[in-house]
Amino acid sequence: MIKKAQHKRSPCPVACTLDILGDKWTLLVIRDLFLGRIYFNEFCRSPEGIATNILSDRLERLVEKGLVEAYVTKEPPIRDAYRLTAKGKSLRTVLEAVAKWGLANIEGTEARLKPIPNRSSK
User: Fold this and answer.
1) Sign of torsion, CA 14 115 85 63?
2) What is the DSSP string of 95-107?
3) Can you give the residue ranges of every domain in the chain?
4) Would you say 62 and 69 are in contact if contact means Cβ atoms under 8 Å apart?
């Protein structure tokens, strides 16, 4: 299998990070993982209304970049699920900073999404 060459705009760490996280949906998928969402249909029910083809693409890219791991649940019903890797979990402070900035600077924002009960995202 031939690997695609990775395109980087520059070696700048901000540019390189934006190459992975800098689209409209990726950080929202990561946010949902922190909130305990693990199943495809749970991501689809997020209030932003991500299209299924875009969600599939973002999950695939996050797995490819080592931020998310795909796995099969052991408890019934057995199905595909996703979880953050250690690398993905290290984005917690980034998300917290973005949320804090939005609450302080964008009128009408509110922290209202609640974690899914009985699931640990830690």
Assistant:
1) negative
2) HHHHHHHHHHHST
3) 13-105
4) no
Strand partners, 69: 83
- CATH architecture under which domain 13-105 falls: Orthogonal Bundle (1.10)
Residue 44 makes CB contacts below 8 A (sequence gap 6+) with 50, 52, 55
Please determine, for residue 80, whether its predicted confidence score (pLDDT) is greater than 80. yes
Q: What is the pLDDT of residue 121?
A: 44
Residue 74 has pLDDT above 60, yes or no: yes
- Residues 89-115: pLDDT tens digits? 999 999 999 999 999 999 999 887 777
Mean pLDDT of the chain: 90
Burial-class residue 37 by CB neighbours within 10 Å (0-12, 13-18, 19+): buried
